[in-house]
Structures are given as structure tokens and as C-alpha cells.
Design brief:
homodimer, Jelly Rolls, Arc Repressor Mutant, subunit A, 4-stranded antiparallel beta sheet, 9 helices, 10 strands
Chain lengths: 242, 242
């Protein structure tokens, strides 16, 4: 296990991990599994399933309403937990679908408790990661409640870029983006046509271009101003616990 | 410390707490403080503040946008953490305002880490509480993204009732509700006039009456059907860890 493991990179932003803690983390990465794109690996309402750490590929978590509407809650990238919340809440409150083929490691609740018992600092680091996930959901709530469509898209693209940068998959120049316009629409509460229009506005404003699977920040600072993007909720300032 | 402590009641729904764990929880309740209604105790952007456990009274967490719009993210009731996320993320991503005069106990990050080291099961219980909070924010995201105003209000009143019931302050008959229509409006992304209209609809539909500081469920099951309220995300089925 080296710095190339995305979960280690991510938790390392919060806790300076000791060799013992790295070993406990490595022991969580035993059961590798793969899932194909487009087929749910967790279903809303399912009980007592495992949680996963995403090793490669992207996924999305979503909720379906009875009338068939879908709200994407968040996207997961390498180093993120899938279903951590569900494993603690007995019943999954959402579904998880791989956006691409993905590779994950499965974690049983018992493994997690063992890991916490061995190293309480790891528990704090995972609580930190969960807090950061919650902070992102809160931002999405503000996005949908109070930001217009163009600001919402700008904010979303900036946040995703900052998350990818933390695991070495993006920079302020841009990043490879595996999301279709349909997925963006379901995440931002817009129609696919509206997504198209909003992306054109941002491109013509010289701020950001999303084309051929790549998001290029044409003017990062202007875009961040426009979206009122304050990345402090992402907390990438470096380890709090040394 | 007895079952009358709301945090003990709440965590007890997830973990059957031992005497040793109860003692650690009690040790977290040392520093009592009070705050008056309407004056922020945590400011968005503030760094390195403490977290709190709410002992009595109600609070709300919210975000302000640069243009002055406000989005209430959630309300806190006795037994809830205030600012737990902020204490781990260095910088608070939201403000917290007491809705009533409140009594809290202050928790420093170091105390929390000590508590986790002494009893990893407590860490898991607190991670569970954080997961439950996140599940509620996710529901609010779905509320605002995909539910109409009347469903949104119905869902909100049901969720708040279920949370209050867990700490012994409500039932399926109803609960004392300390929220003004202005607070409801800022939480649900509605105007105060719209809140009024929606509450009248629900009352005239024979489902729920919010009047004189009391929410009375006139027909709980019809209301739950109407709002598609599935309380499983609240996870009140009884302890997972015994």
C-alpha cells in the first residue's frame, strides 16, 4: 500500500497515518470485487449489505421517487466510500450505480469495528471523510435551493475538480470527466437540454469547456468567483491530526 | 446520567451502551454553556471552534449566499450535535443560530479523540449519528429537488416528529413545534405566504394541523402516504450493536 492508493491519499489529507494505521487500512482492502457500468450494486431499501471503497472508476448514488423521478445525490470517485451510511443505518436510503466499470473492496461492518478498535485515529479520519461527504451534500442542497442553473453547474464542475485533485486525478487546468449530460441533469435538477444550454453559456463566457470527456478550466478564478466557490468546506488544507 | 439525557437516548437506539461507555459519554458533558435565541453561536467561515451537544432548546444550521439568500440546512433538537462537522473540517461551512434559548455542552476535538480511544464503539455510534444526519440532509435535497411544496412540508413535519419521538418529545399524535413560518420557509425554499397556503391545504385535507406551536397529526397514515414518507432512513429500529 503506497500513496497511489486513493483512500490513503484522501485520509492522509486529514491524518498523518502511522505504519500501524496504514497496515489496518491495508487489511480493509482484502476483498476485491468488480461491477459493470449501469447495473446497481446497492438498491434503495436493501438491508444489511456491505460498504465498499472505490478503487477505480466512478459511481453515483441516487434516490428514486415513487413517480419515477430520480435525484442523483452525489458522484463517487476513487478513494470514496460507497454505502458507508447504509451499512450503519441497516437499510440503504439510496441506490448506487457504477457510471463506469468499477473495482471496489468490500468492507463488512465487523471489519470496520475491528479497525476502529485497533486505531481510534482511523475512526476519526473516517468520521472526517463522512463529514466531508455531508458538507458536499449540504452544498448540493444550497445549489438546488438557491443557485440558478448556470451557477449550479459552475459550482458542481469546480467541486468535482477539487475532489479529483485530492486523489491526483485533476488540477486547476482541468480533468477527465466521465459523466454524461444525462447524469449531470439528474444531479443538478435540470433537463438534458438545459444542461447543454448552460454548458454553452459557460464556454462562451470563457470560463470552462466540457467537451470530449474533458473539463478544461479556461479561467479558473473567474469561474470560482461566478459560482461563489469557497473550497474551504472541502477541507484540503493538510492534516489536522499529526 | 440517565435515560433522560437526550444524547444517551439517541445513541442508545444504535448501540446498547455499557456502563463504561456511559461514563465516557458523561465525561463529555462537563462544560455547560447557554446561548440566547437569535444570536449565532457558530459563524460560517469560522475556524477551530468547538462542537456542542444540544441539551435543551432548538437550533438551526444555515448557509448564507453572497446575495443575502439563506438556506436552512437542518434544525437541531435535544441530543443532536451542533458543529460536529465543522470541528473536523477546520472551518465551519455553515452558521448555527439558536431558535430558542439553548443549553449545550461544549466538546473539544481532543475530548472526542480521547473518548474514541477509550471506547471505539462510541466512535461507531457517533459515526452512526453523523450518518443519520447526512441521510436527513439527503432527504432535504430530494425534497427541494423533486417534491412539490405540499409534499415537502408534509415530509418535513413527519421527519421532525420522528426525530422528536426518538428523544421522547413527540408521538404519532403530534408534538410541540417551536418553529416560525419564516424558519419553515427558509428550510423548504418557500416564501412565508406560500408556507401559509401549504399548511392550510394540509389542514383542510384532514392530514395535519400546525397551530399555536403544536403540530397535530390528524391522519398520520394518510399524511405519510401523501409525502411518500419512508422512515427507514431515520433508522429507529433498535440497536445494531449489542
Amino acid at each position: 500500500m503506497t500513496e497511489t492508493n486513493p483512500l490513503v491519499r484522501k485520509l492522509g489529507a486529514f491524518v498523518a497515518l502511522s505504519d500501524a494505521e496504514l497496515a489496518v487500512l491495508a487489511s480493509l482492502h482484502k476483498r476485491r470485487r468488480t461491477f459493470v457500468a449501469g447495473r446497481d450494486l446497492v438498491h434503495q431499501g436493501q438491508s444489511d449489505q456491505a460498504a465498499y471503497i472505490l478503487a477505480s472508476g466512478w459511481a453515483c448514488s441516487y434516490k428514486l421517487l415513487e413517480d419515477g423521478q430520480r435525484q442523483i445525490v452525489d458522484f463517487q470517485i476513487p478513494g470514496d466510500f460507497l454505502g458507508l451510511r447504509s451499512v450503519l443505518l441497516h437499510v440503504s436510503d439510496h441506490s448506487i450505480e457504477p457510471v463506469t466499470d468499477i473495482e471496489v473492496t468490500e468492507i463488512l461492518v465487523a471489519d470496520l469495528l475491528d479497525a476502529f478498535a485497533q486505531t481510534p485515529r482511523l475512526a476519526t479520519a473516517i468520521l472526517w471523510a463522512a463529514s466531508r461527504d455531508e458538507a458536499m451534500v449540504v452544498e448540493h442542497l444550497v445549489d438546488i435551493g438557491r443557485r440558478n442553473a448556470t451557477e449550479r453547474m459552475a459550482h458542481f464542475l469546480l467541486e468535482l475538480g477539487a475532489r479529483l485533485a485530492l486523489v491526483g486525478m485533476g488540477s486547476k487546468a482541468g480533468y477527465a470527466c466521465l459523466l454524461s449530460q444525462y447524469l449531470l441533469a439528474d444531479a443538478l435538477g435540470l433537463s438534458a437540454v438545459h444542461v447543454n444550454r448552460v454548458l454553452r453559456q459557460l464556454r462562451e463566457g470563457g470560463m470552462v469547456t466540457f467537451r470530449d470527456g474533458f473539463v478544461a478550466f479556461d479561467n479558473y478564478h473567474q469561474l470560482a468567483d461566478f459560482a461563489q466557490f469557497d473550497p474551504s468546506y472541502m477541507d484540503q488544507r493538510g492534516p489536522l491530526l499529526r
